[in-house]
Amino acid sequence: MGTPAPGAASDVPQVIVADRQAIVCQGIGSLVAQIPEVALGAFANDKASLKKLLSGARGKSILILGVRLADGDLTQVLEMVRKDHPEVMVVVIAEDTEFAFIRMAVKEGANSVCMMSQILTSLPRILGKLVEGHAIMPTEILRRLTSDNADALSRREHEILALLVDGLTNFQISARLGLSENTVKYYLKAIYQKLDVNSRGAAIAKYVAGNY
Length: 212
Description:
By secondary structure, the protein is α/β, with parallel strands linked by helices. The protein has helices at residues 22-32, 47-56, 74-84, 99-107, 119-131, 139-145, 155-165, 170-177, 181-195, 200-209, and strands at 14-18, 39-44, 61-65, 68-69, 72-73, 89-94, 112-115.
């Protein structure tokens, strides 16, 4: 775990970094420590340690959240944070290959999102705006969210559809891909919308026929 910056002013927002990989937390923490508008708090790798940090936080807090903790993914963690600590501002960080989680974060009420490839330039700007009380959506992400390719199936959605064709249940898919069942349901909802269907069977039929 990281430790709060010594002597940090009480009115300066504390930034908690949470990701299943300690090295990711340390890397993001090194960047946060250089941003004068905020104070670096501690790191969390699982839901229990994150709950403890959020419950013990004083004053304004900003959570920088990766798409997975050791014992839960983005859907579960965002749901927990929004339920128990609605005052906490959340920034979701994802790799370029995990853009579906960015879409999910926006829908689930994250205050901002940032791609890992853009973190050096985007994160300081995002944190500065959050300190001022403004949510911010980086231009490059907004462009992707509204692009003409928004209806194209992602790699992960193709994987889930292929498992549907194989007859796997939501639980089996979640176990196979290391996702929560809620996340699988989110993906299925997005797949149904993109394929313009409203059932599992119709999605499978359309996928098998190649009409997507």
